[in-house]
Write a structure and sequence with these properties.
Elements: E1 12-14, E2 37-39, E3 55-62, E4 72-82, E5 93-94, E6 102-110, E7 115-120, E8 124-129, E9 148-149, E10 159-160, E11 177-184, E12 187-188, E13 194-196, E14 198-205, E15 208-216, E16 235-236, E17 243-251, E18 266-268, E19 275-283, E20 286-295, E21 300-305, E22 310-316, E23 320-321, H1 323-326, E24 336-337, E25 340-343, E26 350-352, E27 369-376, E28 382-388, E29 391-398, E30 404-412, E31 418-425, E32 428-430, E33 435-438, E34 443-447, E35 454-457, E36 462-467, E37 474-480
Antiparallel strand pairs: 1-18, 2-17, 3-4, 4-17, 5-16, 6-11, 6-17, 7-8, 7-16, 9-10, 11-14, 12-13, 14-15, 18-23, 19-20, 20-21, 21-22, 22-25, 23-24, 26-31, 27-28, 28-29, 29-30, 30-37, 31-36, 32-33, 33-34, 34-37, 35-36
């Protein structure tokens, strides 16, 4: 791997869409009718073979993204936490049951700098690693298919095969991430002779396709079994670093390869300098008509609703699929993010609340909002400008920080009872100095210590508000993900 940034000019890339196909489920304990799922119980370790003391059942896990290896188990049940002990007997974890073809989904959390892996049939590894913010990724990074190993190949040639992720869709340590694997077991004839290789048909990391059609000629390095078989257990690597798992589910493996809308999709990337594109864009079932999407070469991107002053989605990875805008007649005129997406809220960022307990408005009245366009600084960072109830607002949002989005909101002559809503989520919890973790450990908010934030309860969860007055007329915070 290298830490140097790619230096390329902006270009439109046309690639072939991945073809969809259906895999026949092979006999095994996880075989089910299409659409059914079989979850592994995490009330205790009864679904697994005896293992080391490094594996514990918990309700959740926490990890400080600034401390190497930090991870703590929260008492309860429903999650599986691996806590590596120095000098201890740190063992891998294998299920009692075995499977052939399978679609596996699970959530995982990495400690900073941590290393683990998910081995299908105890043989074929999808790598888990703290690859957050790396500009380039290889087979040993998160979402990679680990290489095979053979000492007989000679020094410096022992490792071979392996597959790097198509893009880096990793999130920060201490956040829950999602892995989806569509796996096809090796095939054998009636004499036990292998007639077909194992294959990762598709692997998705945080909703982004990172592997497609990867054949394996044999077990990857550090496999539990050296020989191949039609069935085998799931193995979770526990001897390398602290990691947590939950929501482990198997189902019928049916391909869901992302359809770009044409055999010749139009893919837009920001390489060399930031790119801004105006388009329509879907927010749930609502079509937003005045959107600007910002893409940065470091793969930190966002979309902004010009009619609300709302930063409503962020993502890490590739920029936009613009096929529906620029192919033939350009219908339905939609741009689509291509990376690991986090949906925020499309409500206005600032509001006047008559009472401290007043509900946050879903929208701004037409007469109260006037869009005044935007300017670009020397780094092509947009500064969106609008007026709200006669107050002039500047909203500068940057993706230059590889850790996430930085927002600087300036209000000229603020009035009473004016607030900025920084975040909404099922939960909002303090997480270290000036840090908050939002939702189900979805992302972090970092605030300056001069602000006096308020966490309040709503009908749907929590809100993080900051009062705006003359002392906080310029409010800056970061969204780390």
């Amino acid at each position: 791997m290298t830490s140097s940034h790619q230096h390329m000019k902006i270009q439109f890339k046309r690639t072939l869409a991945v073809c969809s196909f259906v895999i026949a489920i092979s006999p095994g304990v996880f075989s089910q009718q299409s659409g059914e799922q079989n979850g592994i119980s995490l009330r205790d370790l009864g679904s697994f073979r005896p293992t080391g003391k490094n594996w514990v059942i918990a309700s959740n896990a926490t990890a400080d993204p600034s401390i190497n290896g930090d991870m703590k188990a929260v008492p309860g049940e429903g999650a599986l936490v691996n806590l590596v002990a120095a000098g201890g007997e740190n063992m891998n974890l294998l299920t009692r049951d075995e499977f052939g073809d399978a679609q596996l989904e699970l959530d995982f959390m990495m400690a900073k700098g941590s290393n683990s892996g998910v081995y299908l049939q105890g043989r074929y590894e999808v790598q888990l690693f703290d690859s957050w913010t790396l500009p380039r990724v290889g087979f040993s990074d998160c979402g990679g298919i680990y290489q095979r190993w053979d000492d007989a190949r000679g020094k410096d040639n022992e490792g071979y095969e392996g597959s790097a992720p198509l893009q880096n869709a990793s999130r920060a340590p201490g956040l829950w991430q999602h892995l989806k694997i569509i796996f096809r077991a090796p095939r054998f004839d009636d004499k036990g002779v292998k007639i077909g290789n194992a294959r990762f048909d598709e692997v998705y990391l945080n909703g982004s396709l990172v592997q497609s059609g990867i054949r394996l000629t044999g077990p990857t390095r550090a496999a539990f079994f050296k020989e191949e078989s039609a069935k085998g257990p799931l193995m979770l690597q526990g001897d390398h670093g602290n990691v947590a798992f939950r929501n482990i589910r198997f189902s019928t493996p049916v391909s869901i390869a992302q359809n770009m809308g044409t055999d010749d999709p139009i893919l837009l990337d920001a390489t060399g300098k930031p790119y801004l594109l105006r388009s329509y864009l879907m927010y749930g079932d609502k079509k937003l008509t005045h959107v600007i999407s910002y893409g940065h070469p470091n793969k930190v991107n966002y979309s902004y609703d010009l009619k609300q002053g709302a930063l409503f989605q962020i993502w890490r990875g590739d920029y936009l699929n613009v096929t529906e805008m620029w192919h033939e007649r350009g219908e339905p005129q939609l741009a689509k993010p291509r990376g690991s997406l986090i949906v925020l809220n499309d409500a206005p960022a600032i509001a006047v609340l008559p009472e401290p307990g007043s509900n946050w408005p879903d929208s701004i009245a037409f007469d109260d909002f006037r869009n005044q366009g935007y300017t670009l600084d020397v780094d092509r960072t947009p500064n969106f400008q609008y007026s709200y109830k006669g107050i002039n607002v500047s909203d500068k949002i940057s993706g230059t920080d590889v850790q996430g989005i930085k927002r600087e909101l300036t209000v000229k002559d603020p009035i009473g009872n004016l607030y900025c809503r920084v975040a909404t989520g099922k939960m909002i919890t303090p997480s270290g100095k000036n840090m908050y973790v939002v939702g189900d450990r979805d992302y972090y908010i970092r605030l300056d210590d001069r602000y006096k934030p308020v966490i309040r309860t709503t009908a749907t969860g929590k809100e993080l508000l900051v009062p705006i007055d003359k002392s906080t007329a310029t409010l800056s915070y970061s969204i780390i993900f």
